[in-house]
Amino acid sequence: MKLIISSVSGEPIYEQIKTQIRTAVLDGELKAGDALPSLRKLAKELRISVLTVTRAYNELADEGVVQNIQGKGTFVMDKGNELMRRQLETQARASLAEAVSAAKAAGLPLEQVGSMLVQEYRRQR
């Protein structure tokens, strides 16, 4: 797994790390039991602070994607995929609810909102 960090994207670096690791788990690139790079090693590779990597790993652990084992490292959890999918679905529903509220406030018809959703979905693939 190769992480690519952009300092100009506007997204915090720890979020970029989380997103890429989460995607690697969902895509099967990282499997249950796989070890993530050590905090220091990843920080050195990406030329960022160890604290930034620590925050990303800790938040992934809070989400149930990985498990931090003191003295051994950080490993992908067995149930990470299912738990992560449920959490991402909840997050998507909340974002869609917010988008629907904005669309209704703007007076956009459902068909246009659906079309916008399809366009955005395809744009991000």
Mean residue pLDDT: 91
What sort of overall outline do the alpha carbons produce when their principal axes are compared?
elongated
Overall CATH class of the largest domain: Mainly Alpha
Unreliable parts? none
Range of strand content = 5-15%
Order of helices and strands: HHHEEHH
The H-level CATH homologous superfamily of the largest domain, spelled out, is Winged helix-like DNA-binding domain superfamily/Winged helix DNA-binding domain
Rg over CA atoms: 17 Å
Structural class: mainly alpha
Provide the spatial order of strands within the biggest beta sheet.
1-2
Fraction of residues in helices? 55-70%
Question: How would a textbook summarize the main sheet?
Answer: 2 strands, antiparallel
What's the count of strands?
A: 2
| Total domains | 2
Helical run tally:
5
The CATH architecture of the largest domain can be named as: Orthogonal Bundle
Span between termini: 19 Å
| CATH topology title of the largest domain | Arc Repressor Mutant, subunit A
Keywords: DNA-binding, Transcription, Transcription regulation
Protein name: GntR family transcriptional regulator
Domain HTH gntR-type: 11-79
GO molecular function: DNA binding; DNA-binding transcription factor activity
